[in-house]
Design brief:
The N terminus and C terminus are likely disordered. It is globular, with a radius of gyration of 18 Å. By secondary structure, it is an alpha/beta fold. It has a five-stranded parallel beta sheet, with helices on one face. Strand 1, helix 5 and strand 2 form a beta-alpha-beta unit. It is built from eight helices and five strands, in the order H-H-H-H-E-H-E-H-E-H-E-E-H. The chain is 49% helix and 9% strand. The protein has two domains: 77 residues, Methionine synthase domain (Methyltransferase, Methionine Synthase (B12-binding Domains), Chain A, domain 1, Orthogonal Bundle), CATH 1.10.1240.10; 119 residues, Cobalamin-binding domain (Rossmann fold). Helix 3 packs antiparallel against helix 4 and helix 5 runs parallel beside helix 8.
């Protein structure tokens, strides 16, 4: 593809716009061709996730909020994206396990789950065992799952700003029940506000991007397999 710069492969504006228009049109084959070309050119998976997939879905969301596309088109774009991420996952070279576990879930009532999948994949690319629970996870079920598997970290994804109060309720419950469990939060909703929420909880951190997540993971010290964190 003429728009990929070799040496430090990146995604050009031309490629992004072409991909986004094909995504909104629901053209799986053309979107897949863009992704395959980027992978063949050596573009990092994190770059594809962040600069193509995440950015294009933000554009889809913005157009939906401005009534420029329908809910059906937004859902189709999401479905195409999820299929492409499964395609990309086959190219991930997983490192040896570091013995740490993370649970990733979307906030209760939140139906979007692509962002959480990106986060889960990023953890796995850093040697973590990732349990990705998907969209609309009830708080009580999530808490019981955490109790059972005792992860080292929890990640919560929020795409729709109107669900911010639900996130706060979840954090109130989870931080009381698991006061020593580190929690990260992120997602498209925080483009509209809510970052100050983290100031109310000692163990909660807002993650703005996959770059920020990688920086956090590089700071984490691996611990022996099976230890888990003290979650209660």
């Amino acid at each position: 593809m003429d728009a990929i710069t070799h040496g430090e492969p990146a995604i050009s504006e031309q490629v992004f716009k072409r991909y986004t228009e094909n995504l909104i049109a629901g053209d799986r084959n053309r979107c897949a061709a863009v992704v395959d070309a980027l992978l063949s050119a050596g573009v990092a998976i994190k770059t594809i996730y962040q600069d193509l997939i995440q950015r294009s879905l933000y554009e889809v969301g913005d157009r939906w909020e401005r009534n420029l596309i329908t809910v059906a088109s937004e859902h189709l774009a999401t479905a195409v994206t999820e299929g492409l991420m499964n395609r990309i996952y086959a190219h991930i070279a997983l490192p040896p396990a570091n013995g740490r576990k993370v649970v990733i879930a979307s906030v209760e009532n939140e139906l979007h789950q692509v962002g959480g999948k990106m986060v889960a994949d990023t953890f796995e690319m850093h040697g973590w065992d990732s349990d990705y629970l998907g969209a609309n996870v009830p708080t009580s079920d999530l808490a019981n799952f955490i109790e059972d598997i005792r992860p080292d970290m929890l990640g919560l994804s929020l795409s729709v700003y109107m669900h911010m109060a639900v996130l706060k309720t979840m954090l109130d419950h989870l931080t009381r029940r698991f006061p020593k469990l580190p929690i990260i939060i992120g997602g498209q909703a925080f483009r509209h506000g809510g970052r100050e929420l983290t100031r109310s909880y000692a163990g909660v951190r807002w993650i703005a991007s996959l770059d920020d997540l990688e920086e956090l993971l590089q700071q984490e010290t691996p611990r022996p397999a099976g230890t888990g964190s003290e979650t209660a």
